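Batch job 17 of 40 flagged for manual review because the log was empty.
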Amino acid sequence: MSTRTTAVPGGPTFLQGAIALQTLSLFFQAATAGMLLSSSHGALLHDVGSRVMYGASMLYVLAAVLAWRPGGGSPRPILYASGFLVLASAQVVLGIAHIPSLHVPLGVLMFGLSTLALGQEVSSRLSARRGDPA
């Protein structure tokens, strides 16, 4: 009896999972930011969510490096992930400093960029699976 050790073609990748986690954590942050206005529990959830979001941003960088290194592909996702980690760092600083006039729009921008990165990664993976030029 043999065991399959290769990845299933077309299955989700670690990079896709990391971007999806980051996107979901940003969506959670938006929801808990709204809860801040109406509940005392919102502050605790938003604080915990910020730690998860920052960890997800670091995981995205790790996933981008691991996806690039073995296959010798483009290092461009590493640039995107690193830039996103810089934005996440700025977001944390703005949140701690209680500057909502910059914190909220940056959060919206980050959610949009993360959603775009996830869509781009999924679509490039699908086009590679079909054999289309990326």
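Reviewer: the log was empty due to a logging misconfiguration, but the result itself is present. Residues 3-8 have pLDDT under 50 and may be disordered. Unflagging and moving on to job 18.
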